[in-house]
């Protein structure tokens, strides 16, 4: 995969979609794959959700400089310690020597021992006052690691869901043995990198969501996630949400529609796995 530089997008007052896309060849056609970061800018402090892929290090630092100017980056929230989510931590902490790493950081000292004094544990339910807005840490109702967390910015009414709610925009054609030729990543076409889900040519289907879910989160073949979606809806009733920001996949602006599609996809994956 190669680096595809894309511009950042303003999503709401004080909230920006950063990071970039990787590109690959799928059956002779170029496709892209989001590795997104999100910057929340309050009147007192700033917070970055996920660090993006090291392939986008220079791009991410340039995006931060463009938005922040002389302001510092105060907090970095990797949703969990995998490369697309925490891989740029050293570069960010070197660039912004006052920044703290927040979240469920129980094992980050194993990955980045030289920065251990800058880790601050934030449990689900805890909050950070950024000034004129509050960032809240949430349980990761759909996760791939034990210490994954989600987040919510009440300023933009946006929920950040790590590896949750990703989807592809075309189910790859199957080979003769019934297996798909492409990777399990939620791919999209060039030119669609900074589109909201409602700006895409077609809304995501249950087939597309199920394809990505069953491969990227293999455990969903064996777990009925109906209770998890009830918990998500309970949180949404408490925290009004207009946007959902996955690390992989277009930003979702039809929250109710995507919940229905994603739940149906999870149920299909579970039924087929049983």
Write up this protein.
GO terms for molecular function: hydrolase activity. Residues 34-248 form the Metallo-beta-lactamase domain. Keywords: Hydrolase. There is one protein chain. This protein is an alpha/beta fold and 274 residues long. Helix content is 26%, strand content 25%. The protein contains seven helices and 14 strands. The protein has helices at residues 57-68, 83-86, 89-95, 108-111, 206-216, 226-238, 255-273, and strands at residues 2-4, 9-12, 15-26, 29-41, 46-49, 75-77, 100-103, 119-121, 127-129, 134-139, 149-153, 158-160, 187-188, 243-245. Strands 1, 2, 3, 4, 5, 6, 7, 8 and 13 form a nine-stranded mixed β-sheet that branches. α1 links the parallel β5 and β6. α5 (206-216) crosses α7. The chain is globular and about 50 Å long. The two termini are 34 Å apart. The relative contact order is 0.15.
The helix/strand series, from N terminus to C terminus, equals EEEEEHEHHEHEEEEEEHHEH
Q: How many individual helices?
A: 7
Helical amount: 25-40%
Mean pLDDT: 86
The major β-sheet equals:
9 strands, mixed
**Which structural class should the secondary elements be placed in?**
alpha/beta
Number of strands: 14
Shape: globular
Measured by DSSP, the beta-strand proportion falls in: 15-25%
Computed over alpha carbons, the radius of gyration is 18 Å
Low-confidence residue ranges = 1-6, 173-182
Distance between the termini: 34 Å
Supply the key terms.
single chain, 274 residues, alpha/beta, 9-stranded mixed beta sheet, 7 helices, 25% strand, disordered N terminus
């Amino acid at each position: 995969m190669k680096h595809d530089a894309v511009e950042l997008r303003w999503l709401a007052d004080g909230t920006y979609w950063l990071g970039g896309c990787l590109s690959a060849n799928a059956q002779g056609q170029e496709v892209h794959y989001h590795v997104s970061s999100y910057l929340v800018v309050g009147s007192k402090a700033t917070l970055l959700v996920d660090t993006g892929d090291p392939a986008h290090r220079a791009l991410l630092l340039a995006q931060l400089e463009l938005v922040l100017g002389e302001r510092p980056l105060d907090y970095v929230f990797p949703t969990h310690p995998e490369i697309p989510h925490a891989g740029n931590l050293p570069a960010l902490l070197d660039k912004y020597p006052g920044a703290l790493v927040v979240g469920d950081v129980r094992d980050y000292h194993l990955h980045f021992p030289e920065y251990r004094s800058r880790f601050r544990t934030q449990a689900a339910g805890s909050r950070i006052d950024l000034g004129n807005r509050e960032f809240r840490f949430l349980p990761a109702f759909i996760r791939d690691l034990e210490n994954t967390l989600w987040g919510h910015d009440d300023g933009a009414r946006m929920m950040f869901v790590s590896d949750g709610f990703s989807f592809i925009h075309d189910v790859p054609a199957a080979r003769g043995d019934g297996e798909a030729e492409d990777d399990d990543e939620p791919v999209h076409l060039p030119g669609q990198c900074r589109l909201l889900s409602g700006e895409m040519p077609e809304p995501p289907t249950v087939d597309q969501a199920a394809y990505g879910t069953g491969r990227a989160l293999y455990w969903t073949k064996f777990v009925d996630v109906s209770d998890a979606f009830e918990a998500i809806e309970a949180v949404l009733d408490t925290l009004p949400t207009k946007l959902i920001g996955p690390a992989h996949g277009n930003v979702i602006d039809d929250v109710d529609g995507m919940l229905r599609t994603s739940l149906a996809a999870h149920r299909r994956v579970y039924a087929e796995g049983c």
